[in-house]
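Hey,
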Amino acid sequence: MSDSRVYVHDTADVADSAVISTGSKVWHYAQVREKARLGENCVVGRGAYVGTGVEVGANCKIQNYALVYEPARLAQGVFIGPAVVLTNDHFPRAINADGTSKSADDWEPVGVDIREGASIGANSTCIAPLVIGRWALVGAGSVVVKDVPEFALVVGSPAKRVGWVGTAGHPLTHVSGDDWTCPVTGAMYRQTGSDQLIMLDA
């Protein structure tokens, strides 16, 4: 660990080669594997798993029992809800076609890339490889099988876009034409395509 100003619960399992930055907390029975990196002010909840070499940006929250398998990448400000799963195997099998046990040499891990400020709701599963765009929101219990655009609100199995959200996380209100507004901050957004939204006053 890189800094003494961190909190790691006695029951947590944090590899010696993991980097836990200032202000971060790793709670009961969580596991942070070899060469994983947590940025400043992160929270890893009870029973959560952060895989080998996973990179987590500053100010992220990984809630209880979430499974973040390598080679996932989380940008700053990402929220991972309770019991979320980020997968890493396109074609999962315990054994090869000849019946022998699969080893690390028999498959290529693929990751979920979650961009700045995005949130993944409780009990959702993200099927790698895919990208969750900036500030997107995945509704609880969803199964995400394809890339999610920035600011998109997606729900269901498979997850589909049902609206837009702003940086505050609340659904945007349609103003007129292609313009949307955040009911919390008043920020204005414009839809520039069927699955593309930009923040006008960013």
